[in-house]
Amino acid sequence: MKINYCRQIVAATLAVVILTAAVRAAEIEVQWERRDADRATADFAFDRISRPSNQDAATNAQVMLSRGEEDPAGAEVFALVDGKLPANRDEPGSNFFLGVGNKGGRVVMDLGEETPILRISSYSWHAGGRGPQVYKVFARDKMPLDPKPDVTLDENPERAGWKFIAAVDTRTEGEKPGGQYGASIARAGGTSIGSYRYLLFDISPVNPGDIFGNTFYSEIDVEDGKQHAAVPFDPRKVAITINSDEMPQLKPWIDGKLRPACEKWYPIIAEMLASDGYVPPRSLTVTFKKDMEGVAGTVGTRVACAGPWFERNLDGEATGAVIHELAHVVQRYRGARGGGQRPGWLVEGIADYVRWFKFEPASARPRPDPSRARYTDGYRTAAALLDYATERHDPELVEKLNAALREGRYRDSIWRDLVGKDLDSLWQEYLDALKKK
Fold first, then answer.
1. Is residue 230 situated within a structural domain?
2. Same domain, yes or no, for 199 and 282?
3. Could you give the CA distance from residue 128 to residue 109 in angstroms, rounded to a whole number?
């Protein structure tokens, strides 16, 4: 058994002309502690680093991944502040980490108001190379009126108005990297680091040569000397960032039509696709790309849209296409857990059901060709089947199917339980009804 401690003083000593700044920087200390597997505990009980809190100043913070992509096998970025901790050393769904092959990423935390920060603490836990933490933290008290995360966060954040606070690196040369880590950033003597509303965590991989070398971050705390009770999340307050820097000609449509539609429909979708114990993502980003082919796609909470297609369809399907992607953000099935199935035709069918049978006008609803269509076509065809089965058999069918997919309970046999017949029989019933119209 081994416990590692490290105390690092951040200082600038390059020249006499910055001596005053160096003294101030030297007052900020980075301390960290590592526990091997036989000493790690589920409550992250370190000897010198305080335990994670669920009542710190970050408890109700908005958190957004502004660069990089989250790993779909892990938790969303909000897991960094939700006060919930993993129970063991290899629990992907309880940790936030960047996707395979990512070379780093940036997380922006909005505390809601300017806050006198006493300490910033971070926690991680993994059996192997995803345990150590490597990041820099920056801060600012105000943000631009129209923040564009992938642009304003310059390669050097200080050029974009961020103030450097400290660098954390818990790697130890010659040591096996697995274990439980806690890191603490504070000013000597316990005085305030400064009053800030926004924090930027510039995260680096533990091992740049390893495509799986991204840290399992369990929690980040921000202490201000007060206790903050968690406020239930209101989907109407989701942080929606829409980036059209590559397609500036779309901005009038975004401001006049798309943004109002997203802000109105995200909470509606969150309610439609609710399930026990599930909290929908609290932030998402929609980015329009000038060289992207196709229409749109979603990874986690990041929606990418093919700018040229949207420019051609502003008066047609453009807004509805983004509503479909918002449904994917809320679905967030995170893989086929529990041994269940996750058929793509049904995943896309539910998203298109939200779009075509809830958002779009009734006159635009699809009508499959009974001579050629099959429910496994997904999208509009599967959506039309869901609408029929909801109207004729169970008004809560989509909600129940969504919960089964999210919880890893879905199997094709569930249809007999929900509507009294198997899928093929239900499809034939729907085709017969179509032919009579």
1. no
2. no
3. 27
| CA-angle at 404, arms to 278 and 382, nearest 5° | 115
Q: What does the pLDDT read at residue 6?
A: 60
The CATH number linked to 315 is 1.10.390
CA dihedral sign, ordered 117, 152, 299, 240: positive
Q: How far is it, in rounded angstroms, from Cα 427 to Cα 434?
A: 10
Backbone angles phi, psi at 83, to 5 degrees: 75, 5
Read off the pLDDT band of 253 (50, 70, 90): very high
Q: How many domains does the chain have?
A: 2
Q: Are residue 166 and residue 252 in the same domain, yes or no?
A: no
Q: What is the pLDDT of residues 73-111, one digit of tens each?
A: 888 888 999 999 999 999 998 999 998 877 889 999 999
The CA distances from residue 99 to 67, 104, 335, 366, 433, in Å, are 11, 9, 14, 36, 45
Scan for tokens 């890191």, then name that residue: 183
Question: Roughly how many angstroms between the first and final C-alpha of the chain, as a whole number?
Answer: 74
